Amino acid sequence: MITALLRWFNRNILELGREMRLSYLPPLMVYVAAGVSGLTGIVGTFFVKDYLGLSASFLAALGFWAGIPWALKMPIGHLVDLLWRHKAGLVYLGASLIAASLLVMIGLIGNPAAMREVMSAEAWFVLSTLLAPIGYVMQDAVADAMTVEAVPRIGEDGRPFPDETVRLMHTTMQMLGRVAIIGGTVIVALANVVMFQGSETLPEAEKVAIYVRIYELALVIPLMSISGVLLAGILKRREARRLARLGHGAAEIDRLVHAPEQTTAPNWWILGGSAAFVALTLAVGLSGLGYGQELIFGASFAIIGVMIYRLVRELSDDARRTLLGTVIVIFVFRAMPGPGAGAGWWMIDELGFDQSFLSRLDLITSTLTLAGLFLFRRFMAEKSIAHIVIFLTLASTLLSLPIIGMFHGLHEWTAAATGGLVDARFIAIANTALESPLGQVSMVPMLAWIANSAPSHLKATFFAVMASFTNLALSASQLGTKYLNGIYTVTREVRDAASAAVTVPADYSELGQLLVTVLVLGLVLPLLAIAATRLLGLRSA
After folding, report:
1. Transmembrane stretches, by residue range (predicted)?
2. Do residues 139 and 26 touch, judged by C-beta distance below 8 A?
């Protein structure tokens, strides 16, 4: 038994460490920054609930608009390919937007009166919410391209690596990218546990001070991304010196270190289509047109679909069928609606989940998600995405049942039967412990396949188009969440800031029906998508 455990530990964890290369570190630093971006998540939840009069339906709609920049990853990714030598500039620009978003929230929480003199608190919050994803998508597009660039082409002996070795390095790089992102969330969770320790007994003014300190601490995020780009520059200069020692000439070194394998020509379909998409998005968003989100989603889907159609012509027929089957399954799986903000409000109001407990729950989630990447490493490498999605769909359905049970009083029955041991917090922790390891299992195989299959002259573009399509699924998820919150109304108590009078009473009576509907949709639709791809003769990676 011990020998088997040691063999597993060596195969799944130590082996990954042995495959780590210094060249992988710069994109990993940018990915860690993306993981750390969740540092303000708990603060944002409580700030919205206690200080802003925004409905669950509005927040779902805002989530849709915040997801739109990720559809713009296409032109940004193509710009990375076109401006390959100067792609670091996009990281600097993205870092500036992220910093601006954080500074808005610091002002809004720390000095709300002064901020309200310019515009309403709700308007400031919307601005901050929309600025951050634009910055992150810029950085992410560059980091994706850097993961391809980070895999070396020439070994220490001066000979090119064989294809099988390159494929393994790409898989390792993508695995480490997921580890970096989840590792960032672990750091965030630890910071929140420390910052919120004992906060449940603090007066409101001191809680607000903690909120401000957390947003100030989050300013390290853009600095981390910039540090990754600076390190990449240092490593490139080091690699150039190594190649010079191996006898390569200046032109050859410049080609191997700084240039893509093939020159990228501007793709006017991508640039023109994306420009039209941006213009349409701004026009619809500013006009307040009815069904504007649906119009934007439809336009996004059509534009990205055309881009995929044109890109798949670069692939073989077999690879084309694999790509289409993969993106369909992943899209449907990621497009499933959630219950929205109302479920979190109910846990805070009815189950008594405070900032301190939620931070500990986040720590459990992040740590076990990271552990799951190692636990399921071989499972991800050896099984198709269709098999993985079936497994995750069934597991997620089962793990949704305890929350539905608690809405109907499960925790009260278990607490009475166990002398208070198995209460709502115990069930939440146990459920989180079971669910967390599954968090990133579906993404690693897809990312590794994209990295290994991307045409050499369209690395960032290929990544961006595929990621845009799968990220568009999250916009579909937000739309579905908005629709469900329109059918099932869930409200928390909202008080007037001046008079403290209740303007909206708390009402969680329809939350149970909402949770059941989400469960049924999340079970049925992904399985139907897999069956449909099989009938169409498509495969999944």
Report:
1. 28-48, 54-76, 88-109, 175-194, 214-235, 268-289, 295-312, 324-345, 357-376, 388-410, 514-536
2. no
